[in-house]
Every structure is written in C-alpha cells, then in structure tokens.
C-alpha cells in the first residue's frame, strides 16, 4: 500500500513541472496574441493621426517588412545566404508595372501573378543554386542581382529602359472616404498581415521543422530523412515569392519603376536590415523594415553624404550591442524586467 502511495506522489511531483511549463507556454502565447492585436490596432489608427508623408514612410516600412519576411525564411530559418533578394523584389515590381502599363489590369489582380512569377523564377534559379553553399551560393545570388539591371535596360520597348515606367496608383473607392495615402497604407497593411500569417503557419508546420533542421545541422537532418535539396529549393522559391509580392505593392505605392531602383545596393540593404532586425525572429522583418526606411532618411537630413556612413556605423553598433539583432535585444530586456518583477 505504501508503495502505491509513493508511486502516486512521484507521479504528482513529475507532473507538476510539466503542467507548469504547459501553463507558462499558454500564458506566453496568449500574451503574444494580445500584443499582436494591440499592434494591429495601433497600425490601423496611425494613418488617421499622421501627416501624409509619414503615412507614406510607414507604408514603405510594411513593403520592406514583407520582402524581409521572405529573406528571413531563406536566411534566418533555412540557413542559406542570399545577396540577390533585391532582384526578385525588382522582378515583382516590373511584372506588376508591365501588366498595368501594357494590359491595363486591375491593381489587385497583379499581386498573385507577380508573386507566382517570382516563385517560378526562384524555383528555377534555386534548383542549380541549392547545389552550392556558403560563399559560392552568395556569389551566385549576387550575380543574379548584378544581371537584372542591365537586362531591364536592354528590353526598352517592354520595360521602358533606363527611363522606367510611370504608372497610376490605386484610387481609393468613394465609399471608404480615405485619402490616397491612407488607402495605399491599408492595402499594404492587408498584404503584410496575410504574408506574416502565411509565414507563421508555414514555420509551425512540418515544413518549418524541416527548415530548422537543415539550418541547424544538414548532416543530421539528412540522416533523419529530410530531403535537403527539396527544402532548400522551396525555401528559395518562397523567399522569392514574398519578395515579388513586396515588389508588386512597391509599384502600387510609388507609381514608378526604373532599373536603377533594384540594383545590388537594394539586396545588400535588405540583408543588412534583416541582420539588424534579427535573423530567425518573428519581429525581425518589421524591425528591419523600420531600420531600412528611417535610418537613411534621418541620415539624409544630417548631411547629404551621411546616409552610407551612418548606416554602416549603426550596423556595427547594433552587432556589437545586440549580436542577435534588435529583436534579440528586446527579448533580453523583456526577460530582465520580468525577472525583476518576479523578485519583487
């Protein structure tokens, strides 16, 4: 009888930490959803309180966040390097521009087509590229970014050449009562929310676990039955698809595309923004979008020659203070505050 009592007590003691961890996970998940809902409410409220130029800036933050979300899938979660992400951004922008300019398609109809074209090109380029790794893969993706600009300039009858294409922006429906800048902001916000939800669902699935396995240890992942080339190629294609979607929305917002807007500098800036925001983190793309949009803008106000210098110095400073990016720094600060509150 005493033996059964001891077994029961041991089981209870073993179950208590398990229940505690489960409750902690539920509380953490609930807190995250509350924070996301609050952030979304603030995002919906902001365009009614900000001047048009600020609304435009935050619209561009969302555009860059969608592009960085795709790059985060490839670099942060699959562990592959890419210096050509700006090329797929440009491809999405030009596919949208050509459809609007040549075929007069509705703006919303261009989004899935631009994303699909970028996905197909990412898949096609990913097949040979994923046989490489490290520095060799970086050089191949860099070549893609270098190749795009002269290619766009060469086909002037279609792309407009160096002069680019000027396009009409989506007009807000009369029933909304919104100004053009507010309407573009909400369109971009809707695309960003859908993109983040899709990425969240993807990473929580078996595919996400396979990508993390590839990132952490390719040899171990292959032993466990993960098809390396398959998931690497898909990660490349998904990354390109989100970049293409971001490029499409960029065309809506700017109303103009030119080859020089999608040079190698864009690819390098996007990668730097993701590293600063936080590789592999949920909030990294959004923080990176803020960094990419506002740091050059603020630096430009200081001095015409300052943006590049300040941008580089800030990257060095962030990497020194927060090696895991701004998202990692925010997480450490939050945990420190939580520990202090618990002690009190």
UniProtKB/TrEMBL annotation:
<feature type="transmembrane region" description="Helical">
    <location>
        <begin position="134"/>
        <end position="152"/>
    </location>
</feature>
<feature type="transmembrane region" description="Helical">
    <location>
        <begin position="183"/>
        <end position="203"/>
    </location>
</feature>
<feature type="transmembrane region" description="Helical">
    <location>
        <begin position="82"/>
        <end position="100"/>
    </location>
</feature>
<keyword id="KW-1133">Transmembrane helix</keyword>
<feature type="transmembrane region" description="Helical">
    <location>
        <begin position="234"/>
        <end position="254"/>
    </location>
</feature>
<keyword id="KW-1003">Cell membrane</keyword>
<feature type="transmembrane region" description="Helical">
    <location>
        <begin position="266"/>
        <end position="293"/>
    </location>
</feature>
<feature type="transmembrane region" description="Helical">
    <location>
        <begin position="305"/>
        <end position="322"/>
    </location>
</feature>
<keyword id="KW-0472">Membrane</keyword>
<feature type="transmembrane region" description="Helical">
    <location>
        <begin position="106"/>
        <end position="127"/>
    </location>
</feature>
<dbReference type="Pfam" id="PF02653">
    <property type="entry name" value="BPD_transp_2"/>
</dbReference>
<dbReference type="InterPro" id="IPR043428">
    <property type="entry name" value="LivM-like"/>
</dbReference>
<protein>
    <submittedName>
        <fullName>Branched-chain amino acid ABC transporter permease</fullName>
    </submittedName>
</protein>
<keyword id="KW-0812">Transmembrane</keyword>
<feature type="transmembrane region" description="Helical">
    <location>
        <begin position="29"/>
        <end position="48"/>
    </location>
</feature>
<feature type="transmembrane region" description="Helical">
    <location>
        <begin position="54"/>
        <end position="75"/>
    </location>
</feature>
<dbReference type="InterPro" id="IPR001851">
    <property type="entry name" value="ABC_transp_permease"/>
</dbReference>
């Amino acid at each position: 009888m005493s033996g059964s009592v001891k077994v029961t007590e041991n089981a209870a003691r073993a179950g208590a930490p398990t229940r505690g961890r489960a409750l902690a996970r539920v509380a953490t998940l609930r807190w995250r959803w509350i924070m996301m809902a609050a952030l979304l409410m603030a995002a919906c409220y902001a365009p009614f309180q900000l001047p048009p130029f600020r609304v435009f800036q935050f619209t561009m933050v969302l555009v860059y966040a969608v592009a960085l979300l795709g790059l985060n899938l490839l670099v942060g979660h699959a562990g592959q390097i890419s210096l050509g992400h700006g090329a797929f951004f440009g491809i999405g922008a030009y596919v949208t521009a050509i459809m609007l300019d040549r075929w007069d398609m509705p703006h919303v109809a261009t989004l899935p087509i631009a994303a699909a074209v970028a996905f197909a090109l990412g898949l096609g380029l990913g097949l040979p590229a994923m046989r490489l790794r490290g520095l060799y893969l970086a050089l191949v993706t860099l070549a893609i970014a270098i190749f795009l600009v002269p290619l766009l300039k060469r086909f002037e009858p279609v792309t407009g050449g160096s002069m680019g294409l000027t396009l009409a922006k989506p007009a807000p429906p009369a029933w909304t009562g919104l100004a053009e800048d507010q309407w573009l902001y909400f369109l971009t916000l809707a695309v960003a929310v859908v993109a983040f939800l899709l990425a969240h669902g993807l990473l929580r699935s078996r595919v996400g676990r396979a990508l993390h396995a590839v990132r952490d240890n390719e040899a171990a992942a292959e032993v466990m039955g993960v098809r390396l080339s398959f998931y690497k190629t898909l990660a490349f294609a998904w990354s390109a698809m989100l970049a293409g979607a971001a490029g499409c929305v960029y065309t809506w917002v700017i109303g103009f595309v030119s080859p020089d807007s999608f040079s190698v500098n864009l690819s390098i800036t996007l990668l730097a923004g993701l590293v600063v925001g936080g590789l592999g983190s949920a909030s990294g793309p959004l923080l990176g979008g803020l960094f990419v949009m506002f740091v050059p803008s603020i630096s430009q106000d200081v001095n015409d020659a300052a943006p590049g210098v300040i941008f580089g110095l800030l990257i060095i400073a962030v990497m020194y203070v927060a090696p895991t990016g701004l998202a990692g720094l925010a997480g450490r600060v939050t945990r420190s505050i939580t520990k202090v509150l618990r002690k009190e």
